[in-house]
Specification:
It is found in: Cell membrane. The chain is built from 17 helices and no strands. The protein is mainly α. The chain has one domain: Growth Hormone, Chain: A, CATH 1.20.1250.20.
């Protein structure tokens, strides 16, 4: 069946991408103790993934539009496998950061290549549902990086885990290369000048900038919180053990997974009934802001439920990709999605490292770790609220 043959290899790759992205939330305390890291150092080390991921996005868009998803993603996954090996062997912060950066570069195409392939093989009416299904595989990867990873750390070291991930990534690269069907175009490939002109057209579009602020601060900010600062918050502010904090993240990941499945099942049908994906996007990210506000102010004591709700509503932020791409020709889809992904991962890098620097600074100014975390989260909440206001205002303007 074409759907499964096309979908499953991309799903496996995106599973690994999300697992790599969020793994440091659980192994972060171990690295902090082993390498004597501060919050800023841990934030920089972890965010090296986001930096290299973001740097790859614009050339990645041109590569996907010119050479196709199959060849580009399978080749980059080889780099991810090498990066996991370097990370497993690393003895210093610099070596670990290089490994983490190579992993980020290697998995930089996992979602964008899937979107590119889907745009070629399936009609626009199915894109929102396909987004939900591919994000479901990412949700499974996020789930694997919580309580299961915590259990794995009890029976083996983090280095052995990354050696295993390197082998699994290599296997997925081979699977993807030999499984994905090639779609040949009868038209002559675009020249480099034409491709760059397409990138310029994307960045010059008011439609594109309608979605950039929420991608930068809300989608990227959620990535930063989920992949590192969630565990730190639960341990430093709420006083949980690492295992209890990982259980919170497992619950959030299950909720995200459920939300992605529901998006996949219902988005197309809801659109036929007049509830467009952009409405789901606006409602979801708005409610995610409310949940972050409740978390940051500790207004409610039900921490499990708050983090579950935060993950659920933040999941709707992934619709930003299909909604941004919907305003452009299919031939530009790779460049649109990677341009937006560039913004998302710049946001993730900035928030992840920036929160660490801010927490360190506030502690130097006399705040205890719990108060420093709370203040940093409130700053993030203010920035995200401003971006959401921009999106709502821009959505009311004539297109």
């Amino acid at each position: 069946m074409l759907w499964l043959k096309l979908f499953l290899p991309f799903a496996g790759a995106y599973f690994l991408s999300y697992l790599y992205r969020t793994a440091n939330a659980v192994i972060g305390p171990v690295l902090t103790q082993e390498l004597t890291l501060g919050a800023g150092g841990l934030g920089l080390l972890t965010s090296a993934y986001f930096l290299s991921f973001a740097a790859a996005q614009l050339p990645l868009g041109m590569l996907l539009d010119r050479f196709g998803a199959r060849r580009v993603e399978s080749g980059l996954l080889l780099i991810a496998s090498a990066g996991a090996t370097v990370f497993a062997l690393g003895q210093s912060v610099a070596e670990l950061a290089i490994g983490r950066g190579l992993i980020g570069l290697g998995v930089s195409a996992c979602l964008m290549a899937a979107f590119k392939a889907f745009s070629l093989w399936f009609p626009p009416s199915r894109q929102a549902s396909l987004t939900g299904w591919i994000m479901t595989s990412g949700g499974l990867g996020a789930l694997a990086a919580t309580a299961p990873l915590e259990f794995a750390l009890q029976v083996s070291g983090w280095r052995e885990i990354f050696f295993a991930l390197a082998g699994l990534t290599l296997a997925v690269a081979i699977w993807l290369f030999f499984s994905i069907p090639e779609q040949y175009s009868q038209s002559k490939p675009e020249s480099l000048a034409a491709q760059l002109a397409g990138v310029k057209a994307v960045f010059g579009s008011a439609h594109f900038w309608r979605f950039v602020p929420i991608g930068l601060t809300l989608t990227g900010g959620f990535m930063a919180v989920q992949s590192l600062w969630s565990i730190s918050w639960l341990m430093q502010v709420n006083g949980y053990s690492r295992a209890a904090a990982a259980d919170h993240m497992a619950g959030m990941s299950v909720a995200m997974l459920t939300a992605y499945i529901l998006i996949g099942l219902l988005a197309t049908g809801l659109a036929r009934r007049g509830i467009q994906p952009v409405m789901l996007l606006a409602a979801g990210v708005g409610l995610s802001l409310l949940m972050l506000a409740l978390i940051a102010t500790e207004a409610l004591s039900q921490t499990h439920l708050l983090w579950i709700a935060y993950g659920t509503f933040s999941s709707f932020g992934t619709l930003v990709y299909s909604q941004a791409a919907a305003g452009f020709p299919v031939a530009l889809s790779g460049r649109v999605n990677t341009a937006l992904n560039l913004m998302v991962f710049i946001g993730a890098f900035g928030v992840q490292w920036g929160l660490g620097l801010l927490i360190d600074l506030l502690q130097q100014l006399g705040q205890n770790p719990a108060l420093a975390h709370r203040s940093a989260f409130l700053v993030l909440l203010g920035i995200q609220s401003t971006a959401y206001a921009w999106f709502c205002i821009a959505s009311r303007r004539p297109r």
